Structure formats: structure tokens, C-alpha cells
Amino acid sequence: MTFGCSNNISKLNPEMMKLWIQILNAVPGSKIILKFAEAADQKVKNYYYKKFEELGLKDAREKVALLGWLPHNKHIEMYNYVDIALDTYPYNGTTTTCQALLMGVPVITLTGKHHASRVGLDILSRLDMQFFSAQSPEEYVQKAVALASKPEAIAKIRASIRQRLAASALCCYKLITSDIENEYRKMWRQWCGNQKNVQIRTTTNINKKPEIVIDDLTFTDIRTTEVKDISVGFHEDYIIKIEHGKHPWKLRTFAEEIEIIKHLNESGCVSCPKLVSEG
Asked: What is the mean pLDDT of residues 152-172?
């Protein structure tokens, strides 16, 4: 039985190593593959072999394989030799967890109270595999040892994980994009609501755009322009230009805006809007 972890060296710590030692000692003939760039240095390897032995692992050089940096394709191929991936704590893996799952390798993670120690649970939950998340160090060891004793179950799990991942929200770019856009809208509305002279009116009607009220002037039909990070809104006498992330807003009359566009056109600005008609 081969366990594996390819998380950054900064995520390794003695407490995590102690849990891995417990797992290795409880599973006869098992070994663990640890991959991190610094392992290419023999002095670093010697340090970790010695550390494992100091923490209670006999024959560390036989039970622990330390791999240095690998090209991406070789890194991914490495998972073909791993039966169970062991996540780090208190800083879980993210990319490495997704890579393991992509290659059909189940991941045992230890969950804490903060974001960094809950990423593993979040990823596994998206695949409806949260049962691989442990709530305590003892449970982490128990889950790893129990799974290692069931090679037939591991084979079935490996055959389905990639399909689970592909069908999950993690791989649905439209859903992810929509969620991000909704959060941006919430942030913008919250910011507007904190301004003394600005109100934003929302509606449950998805076909109706929000309205912005500034100094009792209502701007409707808020729309994003082709120019990055800029939106515009319209009023009977004014036009508002919202430069996201820069100035809160710029309020001009239509006449003022037309004069600015004229000036920009005359100066040969190639990326500026072209004045077609003043009507």
C-alpha cells in the first residue's frame, strides 16, 4: 500500500509526520511518497529521513520515498503509483488535492476551523466524498488505515473519482463565473449603500436592471461598456460613467460628454468612442 503527498514543503510539520508514521506502522508493508522541490537536494533528504526516524519510524529510507521537482507530465504520472493521498494540516492542499482526484486517488484530509484547514473538506464535498474528511488527528489515522485495508474498495473508488470530478461544480465554469458575478454585484451594492448620497435599487425581476440614485437623480439602464471596468447609466439630462475600482463615479451632462468625445476624436484617440450624431 502506497500513500502519497505532494504538498509544498512549508506545509510539512512534525505533528503531521507523526500521524503519517502512525499510519505506516499500522499498515504492514506500506510506504509513503513525498514530493516537493527541495527534495532534489540530498541534504534535505537526509534531514527528513533523520527526522522521521527521530519521530519513531524505523527504516525511514525504505518506507519514505522523497522526490524532487518533476515536469508536469511526470508529476501527474506519479499518482499512478499512489493508492491513497494524505493531505497536510493545518494548511490543506488545493491544487495537489484536485490533481490527486483527477488521477483517481482518494484523499484523506484533516479539517480544522479556518479556511486553510477546510479546503480539503470543501473540495471533497463538491464530489460528495466528505466522508474522507477527518475531524480529529485520531480519525485521520483511522480513516487512512481503514481504507488501506480495503484494496477492492480503493479500486472501485479510483474508477469513479475522475467522473465525479468532471461532473462536479468544480469543473462547471459557467456556475463558477455566475457565482463570482453575483458576489461582485453584492459588493458593489454594499459599497453604494454605504455612500451618503448614493442609493441602489435592486429588483427580483431578472429582466430589469438596477437603478442608481445620486443626489436625487435616478440613473437607469446601467450597462457595462466594451471598455474594461466601466459602466454607464442614463438620466434625462445626465450621463453617469462608473469606473470600477478607480473613481466612484463621474457625473456629466450629455453636452459635456459630447464635448469631451469631440476633443478625444480630434486628438486622434483610437480607443475612444466615436461621435456619430449629436441628436
From this structure: 92
